[in-house]
Amino acid sequence: MKLHHSITYSFLIAGHTKFAPDRSFGLIKKAFKVTYVSSLYEFARLVETSSTSGLNKAQLVGTHDGRVVVPVYDWGTFLGQYFKKLPNIKKFHHFRFSNENPGKIFYKEFVSSPEQSFMLLKTNAVLPPPSTLPDVVNPDGLTEERRNYLSAKSDSSVNQEWKISWLRLHEIKSQQLKQENNRTDRFLYLPVYIVYMFAIRKV
User: Fold this and answer.
1) 89: how many CB neighbours lie within 10 A of its CB?
2) pLDDT by residue (tens digit) across 42-101?
3) In a 10 Å sphere around its CB, with 0-12 CB exposed, 13-18 middle and 19+ buried, how is residue 50 labelled?
């Protein structure tokens, strides 16, 4: 639609990055220290109630039963087919794009630094198809050893009713894998891992 003639993108200098959202994380951290949490849903509720004004909002990206709420895409591999990486990109703070130079990035370390340019496109005439998304990245999940370890170490810190539900889910999943001749089936255990880490940290 050609809505933008140019885009300027600037980053704060390391050591000077504190800004408004830090207050929100501070409220969550304060509430977490005095709140019992043993599931994703309990943590989401903590986030929602951490501010009396409703400042913080929780959005689960996945649930402990394997449902993906917010899919993750392999943008690195997808865009790597068409674009080159800007060397030492973390060194620079100011970036600019212009419709007069498609595929080229203009950058500089500081506001007063001389501007440099770099052609990002590998082939000038080849662009990513606008209607195509990358492959979805599914978490590999926890290993059997790690799941057993977390189960054994969480007795005193995790709600037993929730823990039993999780173990039943794991048992059902194991049976499904056996029925499928040990076919590797990626499963979303990452949110469970995060919750257990929260619980263990509080012990």
Assistant:
1) 11
2) 899 999 999 888 889 999 988 877 788 889 999 999 999 999 999 999 999 999 999 888
3) buried
Tokens of 113: 């630094």
Residue 30 identity (one-letter amino acid): K
Q: Which residue is it, tokens 């001389």?
A: 114
Beta 94-98 vs 116-119: how paired, if at all? unpaired
Q: How far is CA 5 from CA 104, 105, 124, 186, in A?
A: 13, 14, 19, 43
C-alpha dihedral sign at 36, 29, 45, 63: negative
Q: What is d(CA 75, CA 151) in angstroms, rounded to the nearest whole number?
A: 34
Please provide the size of the chain in residues.
203
Amino acid type, 19: F
Show contacts of 87-90: CB within 8 Å, 24+ apart: 87/118
Measure the CA–CA gap between 123 and 126, rounded to whole angstroms: 5
Contact 46, 60 (CB under 8 A): no
Pairing state of beta strands 116-119 and 104-108? antiparallel
Find out whether 64 and 166 touch, Cβ atoms under 8 Å: yes
Name the strands in the sheet holding 116-119, side by side, starting at the edge strand that comes first in the sequence: 6-10, 94-98, 104-108, 116-119
| Nearest Cα to Cα of residue 145 among 178, 170, 175 | 170
pTM over 0.70: no
* Pairwise CA distance, residues 93 & 9, whole Å: 8
